[in-house]
Specification:
single chain, alpha/beta, five-stranded parallel beta sheet
Amino acid sequence: MLDLGRTFLQSVERSPTALALVDGDLALTYAQWHRIIVNVAEGLRELGLAHGDRLLVVLQNRWEMATLHWACQFAGIVIVPLNWRAKPDELDYCVTDAGVKAIVYEPVSAEAVTQSPAAQNLPRIGLDDAQGRTARFAALLVERSHDGGTQTTRANADDYSLILYTSGTTGKAKGVPRRHRHERAAALAHVAQNLYRHGERTLGVMPLYHTMGVRSLLSMAMVDGVFVCARRWNARFALDSIEQYQISCLYLVPTLYHDLLADPAFAEIDTTSVKKLGFAGAPMNDGLLKRLSAAFKPELFVNHYGSSEVYTFSIDQDATQKPGSAGRAGINTRLRVVKLDAQTPEDLAQVGEEGQIIADLLGDEAFEGYWNRPDANARSLRDGWYFTGDTGFFDVEGDLYVSGRVDDMIISGGENISPVDIESVLSLHPAVDDVAVAGVKDERWGQRVVAFVKRREYVDAETLDAYCRTSNLVNFKRPREYVFVDDIPKSPVGKILRRKLSAGEYERDERGQPNDGNDGNHSRASGAFIATHTETTKE
């Protein structure tokens, strides 16, 4: 199999004058970008980074970040991209855990770098006069004479390409090392499963420290396409970029699609160039699916379910046909659903029975184990299968439904309740803008089902409860409390942070609620409606 450096060279050789990268006023063809990439690769080597060394990069989605990703692939250096919002202790942990040899950063991430003790012992390459630097990024851009080896690559398909650090909800982040062949297989599958054509154009807004952002970057090179950098998410900038650069495909988390539709400029800006929509990172509720389908009228609407560890679990290429379905296993994957308490991959759940989703580690996109974490490997890797920690079930037609996380499961009155299908029902109410469901401690029931609702227009809890009673939602899953909030807390890539909701870390929307002096946590006095919880058997 080709390594990623040679993969990029394919596009340079096929389409040297085609537009490849855009960042503001900067626009580079494949030939121009390749020249810069190999200069940066040699510059990293001159700084002392050798084949297999790790480079920590703490940048937004700017052209330098995309360039460094490719330069590392050419040089055989392992890129370790990190969230530019990382706190000093998080950065310090990753520097030590990955054993990095140098850091590249910018002013927005300078505080974390300068306050990391481990970082002070390393070369620190700063952009834009970043505080604390020992070298300037401009030094990497100096034009150099190149030998034949640099023009191709110093890596092979079995070398590590990058280490992604999973955000995690508890404990330290886990490093996920992925080889060139894993990354190339995943990018090829992404192209195939999203039906990308030659010359596609995408908005590079998903962060390049996240697998969705990396996949967008690599897949555009696969099809000689265009990667338009979006340094920070801004819905109006995204809409303007769609129109200006004739973006043809979007691959975003549901939260960002929600923001696009909510922007007042959406109705005025021409988005007809967008023919393909793809989403991942979090479930998309039924209401948003319908609104996007009506607004964009896409030729293809893909629900992609995956992870950093095994990029693609499943694909549904017609997300609106069976809302909530994650489709079937991707072209490089085998999937099973095992019982929630299963210890082996052979303890299969029945059709329609909720269990834990697992994936075959022999798949071409699958990682081989966590970096320096035998404890995490022992929990997640069993008999050649990756236990995802996600819950779901197969329906009678063989389609997969993802219902949540094992850790998000609500146990109320002895019943296991997943939040996702409750959220999908509530999302269809016209007054609901966004919704998340979480379990809150309850003395009698263990946990009670609470719906946290961001309103589009005024609606009260009694109305939403009546709406759920007339839906197809089984009664024991019906929320017992409704709390109206200003916003739903989410991670930088759009995952609902249910633990924050359960812990009372939110701001209430006070419209129409009694002024009871409550401090914002989830009590009966919050103005929320609490139903009588008498039904505990399935209907």
